[in-house]
Every structure is written in structure tokens, then in C-alpha cells.
Amino acid sequence: MNIRFLLIMILLSTSMVSAEQKSDLASPERITARLGVLYIPVGAIKFIPPDTENDFYDNFAFRISAEYFISGFFSLGPGIEYLIKHVEPEQGYPFEADIKLYNFYFDCRYGYPLTDSETNYLVMGMGSGIGNLQESMELGDARGTGFCLYGLFGFDIALSNDIGLDILYRYQTIRITIDGERNYRFEGSGLQAGLNYRFKF
Length: 201
Description:
Layout: H1 2-22, E1 30-47, E2 52-71, E3 74-87, E4 97-113, E5 121-137, E6 140-158, E7 163-178, E8 182-200
Antiparallel strand pairs: 1-2, 1-8, 2-3, 3-4, 4-5, 5-6, 6-7, 7-8
């Protein structure tokens, strides 16, 4: 699974660089601010002893980011994602906790214009960052950090001259271990959607 994900990332980066080199168009300099939500259908906890894994479902994270267009239709910038959830897997090892996940990330995107007005885009991108997970249980609190990596593909659709709608498919891998005993995983497909505002100057 990780090898396939790495190959997807390499293909995306190659296509973005190639498209940027072929493009002679130049968009006005701008910063785009984004506010939205990330939906991850399935998360999991792997308990190292006794080596069992429990799934939990319907995970929603709020996200905010800002990107600067450095050349043509290529942009990059930082952002943050915040997920809060009560975890109580339906089957498997008995466990219950409240978790908070913060992802601090940096991503890059290439937007290929679908219209002559250059307001609707086909989007490809990737990102990486650091995840910090806080876990609260009756026995006490714990936390851990881990690495996150993801790829994006979808559309940025103009709602007006300055406002757009993001609808993106996302494939990610996020793994965070707590106390060497519990490994939280948010891996696989997800949906990323939200609004963006384009500051032109």
C-alpha cells in the first residue's frame, strides 16, 4: 500500500512540473485562503499488545490554510487540520477515549484552468506535515506525534470572481503511536471540501 502511494505521489509531482513548464500563461499574483472540512471514512487503533486492531468510522476534521501562487498556476503554503472525536470501537479490544488530532502541514498544488477566464481549475497536489494526537481516558491523558502524507485530485470551482468551491479526493496516510501501546491510523481515501477566497494584488 505504501509503495503504491509513493508511486502516485511521484506521478503527481511529475505531471505538475511538466504542466508548469508547458504553460505560458501567467495568473495575477495572489494569495488564496481556504476554509473547509476533511472527511475520513475509517480510522483505526492497533493495540500493540495484544496485537489487535479496532476500526472507528465517520471522522471529520476542520481545516484552514493559505497559499501563495509562486508562478503560473502553481501554489504552496501552510495549513492546519483539527479533528475531535469520541473513540469507542464497535468490535474487538474494549477501549474508550476522547481524541484530538492536530495536523500541521505544508502542501503544493497545480491548478489547470478549465475555462478561458481562468477561474475554474482541475487541481492536483500533495502535502506533508506533522500530526499531534491528544488522548483522554479515565486513567489519564497521553499524546504522541507522527508524520502525515497525502495526495489531492479534484476541482476548484468559481462561485464568483473571488470565491471558489473546493471538491477534492484525498488519499492520505497518518500514523501516530501513543505510549508505545496504541497506534492510531488514518489511512486511505477521503473527501476534502470547502470554500476559498482569492486575494489578488
